[in-house]
Amino acid sequence: MTLAIEAFEISRRVFGPDYPHTLATAHALAVSLRAAGDFRTALEQDMDTVRRRTASTTARPTRGCANGSARTTCSR
Amino acid sequence: MAAAWTVALERLGLENPVALQLLQACLFMAPEPISLELFLTPPKVNISPEMGATLQNPSRLNRALRQIGVTVSPAPTTASDCEDEWARRLAIDIIAFFFYWGDQRGCREYAVQVVEHWNTMLTPEDPQILKAARWLAFVERQLGNLAVGAAINADCLNKLQASVGHDDEETLDAMMLASDDRRAAGPPATSTAR
Fold first, then answer.
1. For residue range A31-72, what is the model confidence (pLDDT) as tens digits?
2. Which of B6, B81, B90, B139 is the most exposed place for a label (fewest CB within 10 A)?
3. Which top-rank group of organisms is this from (chain B) (predicted)?
4. B interface mutation test: which of A3, A33, A65 has the most B CBs within 10 A?
């Protein structure tokens, strides 16, 4: 958990809260929070990430699948 | 690199033309996962009568799939051998491709080969070695080898912190992977000393 928090805080400070890498670290932190049983904070963290991702993807076109569906990938 | 692929594909075409057609059909749809049902259930994709006959025959289909794997897999080795940075990026993409294709063991095998070879020709802190190594760690974890993956990630994190600093994106990526490792390992054992 400590490493996840540290990665998120560094990324937010260095790259800003809406930067894709920051959002990836935010999601990773939420996963850690959920695994640790802190479901409410995890949900809040994920909702914030969804809001930021939605705002960024509606602001500009993004690469997607040919059939328009969302691509599901691992954290890599 | 392109020449190596061409030779491999030409050989496949000579040895089993249907296997080459099948590979071409799959490459057209890649990197999306391709269900075998697409070829086997109506309405079938009808590429050629020869392929239709192969798809109807499980034995011939399995032989074609095996031949694709055996013939084409040596081609990526030339990417890992190349001293050009762009070709090394391609090698990392091939590692990722194996993973997303669903061939986790192939992914690990190729990643091991890449990391071992690059360690003989690049410095240990080279960002491309450390990227390939993190892919190796990731796939090791996916295969259940948690301790192996964690050790590789910890090594990558140390090297990145020392070489590019704590604020670099690569370092942060390694930090997230190390965090995943710790989560996967579970809580530290508590002392049971009496």
1. 999 988 999 999 999 999 999 999 877 665 444 333 333 333
2. B6
3. Bacteria
4. A3
Please give the CATH superfamily to which domain B77-185 belongs: Tetratricopeptide repeat domain (1.25.40.10)
CB contacts under 8 A, A 18-57 vs B, are 21, 24-25, 28, 31-32, 35
**Closest residue in A to B170 (Cα–Cα):** A21
d(CA B18, CA B59): 13
Using CA atoms, how far apart are residues B34 and A50, in angstroms rounded to an integer?
Answer: 29
Q: Is the peptide bond before B187 cis (omega within 30 degrees of 0)?
A: no
Residues 6+ apart with CB under 8 A from B149: B136, B137, B138, B139, B140, B141, B181
According to the model, what pLDDT value does residue B162 have? 96
